[in-house]
Amino acid sequence: MVGGTRREELEALKLEVNSFLTSVERYNSNNLPKFEKYVQLQVSENMYDLEANLAILKLYQFFPNLYKPEIVCWILLKSLTNLPNTDFVLCRCLLGAGQLDDLNIARIAYLANLLELCQFKRFWQEKAQDANLISQITGFDDAVRKFVCHVVNITYQSMDKTILKELLGGITDADLRSWIAKNGWKEEPNNMIYISNQDEHVKTKNISEKITFETVSVVM
Amino acid sequence: MAYRRDSYRKDSYTRADSYRDGRIYDDEEYGGYPGHADQVSNNRKYSDFGNKDDFYDPRGTSTQSYSFPDAVAKFIIHLYQSINNRDVSEIENLYEIRFPQLTRDYFKEEKWPQDITHLVDDPLFTTLYRELYFRHIYATMSNSLTFSDRCNSYSNYCELFNMILTSPEPIDLTLTNQWLWEIIDEFVYQFQSFSQFRRSPRLNAEESQYFKEHTYIWSVLSVLNVLYSLIEKSNINQQLRAYFNGENAETVAGDFGKSPLYKMLGYFSLIALLRVHSMLGDYHLAVKVLENIDLHKNTMYCNVPACQITTYYYVGFAYVMMRRYADAIRTYTNALLYIQRMRQMFQAKSYQNDQVNKQTDQMYTMLAICLVLHPQSIDESINSVLQDRKYADKISKMQQGDMKEFENCFTFACPKFLSPVPPAIDASPDPSQEPLQIQKSIFMEEVAQQIYLPTIRSFLKLYTTMPVSKLAAFMELDHNTLMECLLCFKHKMHNIVWSKGVSSLDGDFMAGSEVDFYIDKDMVHIADTKVGRRYGDYFIRHIHLMDELHRALKGLKF
């Protein structure tokens, strides 16, 4: 029951926030409490809204006295759940010099760097130390795993099961099976997993020029 | 790439005559003008008694004595009359040719006359004139630009925009699009100049105090307010949506939007927002405000080249920060090809040349950076410029991983970054550099994350298949580290690329690397892209040139 009303609250707030974003209201600092509540709901209800979050960071940029570090941490962590999109970079560009020195934010930036470098094993090890910071974000771990699967999907044709387990953060066999199913992969003998037929996508290309009628029609 | 002949033509008036005439504004040609002969005589020099105690001085004291050259007085009156008569071609002549000419002749180191009310007593014209007056100071006499000048210029803009925005009906004013663009462009430029000035160590205590008591002067919110109001007043977003959908924009324009003045001010305000947001580091919003403008088809809508080039420059830069390198490369090559085509137009207007040249240089530099991070083949005519020594040196250094070179190129080519607020009390010794340092460090971090990519790419180019262990040996990395690098390569080369739709933000994830690979168990399978020689562009370009030559020859009178 509680979950239901929170979801409704989220939907209603989303409409209101969207109306701010389409006008100068997005620069009105009086709207900050609503924006901040919206972030809170995004965190608890596993939902994500890039534009609203960027608008909050912008308001903090214009009104540094209203800056709230916890909200910024949440926004940055949520942006990581949208990898491989570069949302984290967009958010960082709106932070001021002093804010980047905040220990928590520096820590999040470090974890983000590990993810961008695809150093997934190290990421899971390091992340374990930040349980307080991250545990509030519902669905954070799964979002990162989704990103890992995306990178695996574009890189491998088949790979070793043990390696995959490591990349996904040392999950249980049961969980691994469900991720394999979710991505449409196939378990094969010899502890291998078949990802996809990369041969189709990654082929030697010979690009020769195609001159279309439209290009030539201009000069005819 | 289709070459648009139409972009050469103007959709409003033909300007061919004004250039061909080569009209010379001979002072003797104009006789005296009624009513003012007693106040102006030849060769008296202008002197300015500014009131230095009050920074905020909208009108200047009326006890000033002023005297200035005849030609200048005639110009001012002539300009006023042309605006009144809505004589667009004459306005263009006076604004684009005569005004710079007089500036060169009389005002290289002096200000234009500050008070012209004895010549023309019209509040709207006065604000327009004063806008030119301040613009000249900023451009030509920036060393003698005072705090009072900045404040007065701000109040002049407020007056001008107030008149335009609060009028119950569209005001009856006809100016050229070039002039309107330059008003908006200068407005944003002066805001940028003030934001940097406020963080400058040269700011003295008195000015600092004055500013604290009058925070609305050149504040980011007031600038944004003006731009948003112009956009809303003109219904420009609705008009653009209709235009690119092939519908009639008149139906959604509204009373104000139908007036070309409001429509173009609305359009230029969108570009100004692109610029302001980029300078504040908000790249997403910067590109989003243009979501109703199809950047592949808008040269007809906006016939001001400087505006078009500025648009390309900022959109390209935003794409780079968003790691959409393919889109950035496409935008920059479109921009540079556009500039190549428009070159001939700039020769006549020397005062625009500097800015266009600078932006061209910056775009080539950004393009060089993009091509190092995301190698791909581009248009031959642009590529040949990049092979010129100036850029080839930089490119080869960056390809070898010279981080300093990346930094230098970025610093040269990036926009002027701003902070919307004054520096903190405990700020670094030179807070004016802070915004730039922040953006630069974010970019450099991205470059650092990609540091292994060129090496991997060079090895991949040599083989079609290779065991992972062999590649690890070549790169002198252990197996695990190499796997991470390979994953990173795939991740970094898989970015959002625009393919269709009006908004430049649209796009899908696509593999962008010309050298691609996949891993099967322990083997790396590599695929390279061979690009065949392109000849279509070359022929079409020469057909166009021939065409132009043919038309020019036909037009010659013997």
UniProtKB/TrEMBL annotation, chain A:
Keyword DNA-binding tagged: no
What are the protein's GO molecular function terms? Answer: ribosome binding; RNA binding; translation initiation factor activity
Q: Which GO terms describe its cellular component?
A: eukaryotic 43S preinitiation complex; eukaryotic 48S preinitiation complex; eukaryotic translation initiation factor 3 complex
Q: Which GO terms describe its biological process?
A: formation of cytoplasmic translation initiation complex; regulation of translational initiation
**SUPFAM superfamilies recorded for this chain?**
ARM repeat, Winged helix' DNA-binding domain
Q: Which keywords has UniProt assigned to this entry? A: Cytoplasm, Initiation factor, Protein biosynthesis
| Subcellular location field | Cytoplasm
Q: Which residues form the PCI domain?
A: 48-210
Is Protein biosynthesis there in the keyword field? yes
What role does this protein play? Component of the eukaryotic translation initiation factor 3 (eIF-3) complex, which is involved in protein synthesis of a specialized repertoire of mRNAs and, together with other initiation factors, stimulates binding of mRNA and methionyl-tRNAi to the 40S ribosome. The eIF-3 complex specifically targets and initiates translation of a subset of mRNAs involved in cell proliferation. Component of the eukaryotic translation initiation factor 3 (eIF-3) complex, which is required for several steps in the initiation of protein synthesis. The eIF-3 complex associates with the 40S ribosome and facilitates the recruitment of eIF-1, eIF-1A, eIF-2:GTP:methionyl-tRNAi and eIF-5 to form the 43S pre-initiation complex (43S PIC). The eIF-3 complex stimulates mRNA recruitment to the 43S PIC and scanning of the mRNA for AUG recognition.
Query: Could you give the subunit structure recorded for this chain?
Result: Component of the eukaryotic translation initiation factor 3 (eIF-3) complex.
Q: Which family does it belong to?
A: Belongs to the eIF-3 subunit K family.
Protein name (Swiss-Prot/TrEMBL)? Eukaryotic translation initiation factor 3 subunit K
